[in-house]
Specification:
single chain, about 450 residues, alpha/beta, TIM Barrel, M1 Pyruvate Kinase, Domain 3, Pyruvate Kinase, Chain: A, domain 1, eight-stranded parallel beta sheet, six-stranded mixed beta sheet, elongated
C-alpha cells in the first residue's frame, strides 16, 4: 500500500508505482485538499483501466487530534521536576503552563495519570486535578513549541473518533468512491459501530489500532470491522517501545483468526525518505510483518514526500516476494493456521486448501459477490494463488487488500457449468495455469448469497 502526497500526485508517478507493485493507494485526509484527492482518484481509476486490474483506494480519516495551545515566543523550556499546569485559559503559555482547548480531557484525567507531549519527548504526571485544569510534574523535560500533540496513554476519552471535519471528509470520500475508510483513534467497539452506520455499506471499514487502550477490547473491535491497520506511529508513542512488537503480533494473530485483512504501517522504510536504500533493520522489519502473516504492508512518508518513492515500492515488493519464497515462511504459516469454525463455508474453504495441495492444483478459484468467500480462502493461507472472481467492481477493488488474492472482474455467473468454464478461462488467460492442469473451485449456491460457500469442485483447465 502506497500513500499519495506531493512526491507522487501525478499520473506519471502513480503509473510508476503501479508498475513497481503497488495495489492499494492511501489518501491521507490529514493533509491535502479535496481537489487534489479528487484528481488522484480520477488518475487511479484511469490507470485501473489501462492496466486492466482493480486498484484499491483507502481514505485515512484524521480523527481527533488533541493539541496544546501557543507559547510566548513560540516555545518554552520545560525543566525536569518542575510543576507545569494545563488549563483552558486563553493566555499564552510559558515554562509554568500552557492551554489545552479540549475540556473533555480534564474530565477523564485522574491524579497519577501520565501525559505525553511532542510524540512522547515530553513526559508529565498529574499531581492535582481541577474542573478545567490539571497540575503536573515534569518527568522528562525539554523544548516544547506551539500546537504540539498531546497523548494520554491508558486514559479512555469520552469523545467520538469522528470529528466534524471527519464527517465532512467522509461524505466527500464516499462520493468519490473510495474502497476503504480508515478510522483513527478507535478506543471501543462502539466507535466502529458509529462509523459503520455512517458509511452504510458504501466502503469497507479499516480500524487503525493506535491506542493501547483498544487492546482491552481487541476481539470485539476486530469482529465488528472489515480490516485492521497496526498503526505503529501513535501506538509507539503511547505504549513503551518494547511492547510494540508484541502488540503487533497479537493484533495480526487476532485479525487472521477472524479472517480480517490486516495491514502493518508506519516507518517501515523510513530512511528511504532521503536515501535510495533501506537500512538492514528496516528490511528485517518489513520481513517480520510478512512472516507474522500480515496481508499488506504500507509506505507512508516514503511515497508521500520521499525522494525515492518508486524505489521504496520496488524494494518492499522484493522483500515480500523473497520472504514468501523462504521455506521458514510456509512452516510459520502452517503452524499458525486457525481451526475452521463449525460452518459449511469454513469446512469447504479449509477442504479447498487441503485438496489443492493434495492434487497439486495451480490455483483456487473463488466466486464471490461480497468478498466473504474469497476472504475465507485467504484466511487459510494456501500454497497456491487465490483467484477472487466477482461481478462487483467494488468487491474486486477491496479484495486487493487480502493476502494471496488476485481479484478478477467477471460477468454474473448464470449456471454451475458457466462458473466452471469461467474459472478455467480466467486461470488460462491470467497465466495461472496451462491446459491440462487442475484448479479447485469454490462458490456459494444459489449464486449471489453472501457467505453461503457450499460447493467445491476440481476441474481441468481446457
Amino acid at each position: 500500500m502506497s500513500t499519495l502526497g506531493p512526491a507522487t500526485s501525478s499520473e506519471k508517478r502513480m503509473r510508476e508505482l503501479v508498475k513497481a507493485g503497488a495495489d492499494i493507494f492511501r489518501l491521507n485526509f490529514s493533509h491535502g485538499d479535496y481537489e487534489v484527492h479528487a484528481e488522484n482518484v480520477d488518475i487511479l481509476r484511469d490507470l485501473e483501466k489501462e492496466f486492466d486490474r482493480p486498484i484499491g483506494i483507502v481514505m485515512d480519516l484524521q480523527g481527533p487530534k488533541i493539541r496544546i495551545g501557543e507559547f510566548e515566543g513560540g516555545s518554552a523550556e520545560l525543566k525536569d521536576g518542575k510543576s507545569f499546569v494545563l488549563d483552558m485559559s486563553d493566555d499564552l503559555g510559558n515554562e509554568t503552563g500552557v492551554s489545552v482547548p479540549h475540556p473533555e480531557i480534564f474530565k477523564a484525567l485522574s491524579v497519577g495519570d501520565e501525559l505525553l507531549l511532542d510524540d512522547g519527548n515530553i513526559r508529565l504526571k498529574v499531581t492535582k486535578k481541577g474542573r478545567q485544569n490539571v497540575e503536573t510534574k515534569i518527568i522528562t523535560g525539554g523544548k516544547l513549541s506551539d500546537h504540539k500533540g498531546l497523548n494520554l496513554p491508558g486514559v479512555s476519552l469520552p469523545i467520538s473518533p469522528l470529528t466534524k471535519k471527519d464527517r465532512k471528509d467522509l461524505r466527500f470520500g464516499l462520493d468519490l468512491g473510495v474502497d476503504w475508510v480508515a478510522l483513527s483513534f478507535v478506543q471501543r467497539p462502539e466507535d466502529v459501530a458509529e462509523a459503520r452506520r455512517l458509511v452504510a455499506g458504501r466502503a469497507g471499514i479499516m480500524v487503525k489500532l493506535e491506542k493501547p487502550l483498544a487492546m482491552e477490547n481487541l476481539d470485539q473491535i476486530v469482529e465488528l470491522t472489515d480490516s485492521v491497520m497496526v498503526a505503529r506511529g501513535d501506538l509507539g508513542v503511547e505504549a513503551p517501545p518494547e511492547d510494540v512488537p508484541g502488540l503487533q503480533k497479537r493484533i495480526i494473530e487476532c485479525a487472521r483468526r477472524m479472517g480480517k485483512p490486516v495491514v502493518v504501517a508506519t516507518q517501515m522504510l523510513e530512511s528511504m525518505v532521503h536515501a535510495p536504500r533501506p537500512t538492514r533493520a528496516e528490511a528485517s522489519d518489513v520481513a517480520t510483518a510478512v512472516f507474522d502473516g500480515a496481508d499488506a504492508v504500507m509506505l507512508s512518508a516514503e511515497t508521500a514526500v520521499g525522494e525515492y518513492p518508486i524505489e521504496a515500492v520496488e524494494i518492499m515488493d522484493r522483500i515480500i516476494n523473497k520472504v514468501e519464497q523462504d521455506p521458514h515462511f510456509r512452516k510459520i504459516l502452517e503452524a499458525e493456521v486457525s481451526m475452521p469454525e463449525a460452518t459449511d463455508a469454513d469446512a469447504i474453504t479449509a477442504a479447498a486448501r487441503q485438496v489443492a495441495e493434495t492434487i497439486s492444483a495451480k490455483a483456487i478459484a473463488t466466486f464471490t459477490s461480497t468478498g466473504s468467500t474469497t476472504l475465507r480462502a485467504a484466511r487459510e493461507r494456501p500454497r497456491v494463488p487465490i483467484l477472487g472472481m466477482t461481478p462487483d467492481l467494488a468487491t474486486a477493488r477491496r479484495l486487493q487488500l487480502a493476502w494471496g488474492v488476485h481479484p478478477i472482474l467477471t460477468r454474473d455467473v448464470k449456471s454451475f457449468n458457466d462458473m466452471l468454464t469461467r474459472a478455467s478461462s480466467a486461470a488460462l488467460d491470467q497465466g495461472f495455469a496451462r491446459k491440462g492442469q487442475r484448479l479447485v473451485v469454490t462458490a456459494g449456491v444459489p449464486f449471489g448469497t453472501p457467505g453461503a460457500t457450499n460447493v467445491l469442485r476440481i476441474i481441468w483447465v481446457e
